[in-house]
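Field reference: "sequence" (input) and "structure" (output). Example, Restriction endonuclease:
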Amino acid sequence: MSERLPPNTKIRGTGFNISDFWSWGFSDVLTNSLRGVFAEFLVGSTLDVLQQPRIEWDAYDLMYKDKKIEVKSAAYIQSWHEGQYSKISFGIEAKRAYNYATRSYTPEPVRNADLYVFCLLYEKDANLIDVLNTEQWHFYIVKTNVLNTLFPQQKRISLSTLEKITQPVSFTEIKETIDQAIYQ
């Protein structure tokens, strides 16, 4: 596993450091791929589990109190927004996990996490949207066994369906809600 790079790490042969690269390449946090990574960061930060660098293709996104957490994100407005809101849904498809030790995939697809955190950037005004403002996010926390019971074969879950099984919490309520889910 790699170690976290300090922001002032020099890029040899240039006058730049790694934070210059990060700023150049990753400032548009509203793009789908970066928004998802940012959502993982938000959840990981409130759980205090950001000690190791993120593993891109891991079977789950975060580990907290020996529980595997999958983080999904969605937003009404995308970086390329042209006036129409995106339909909100989240991927919940069972997948085969890659085992780095054996360099092979698990034989059967499953939902590999113990619980899911569905993160919705809900601001609908393109002039006001601010990915970095945690007050513009809602977080829906669902145990995987609930998804397996109610939606065993489903690949996606819509916001309206999600709201039938759980209520959104704010950023400041994530840790408490996850702790409650773990110990129920």
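The first helix runs from residue 18 to 25.
DSSP finds five helices and eight strands in the chain.
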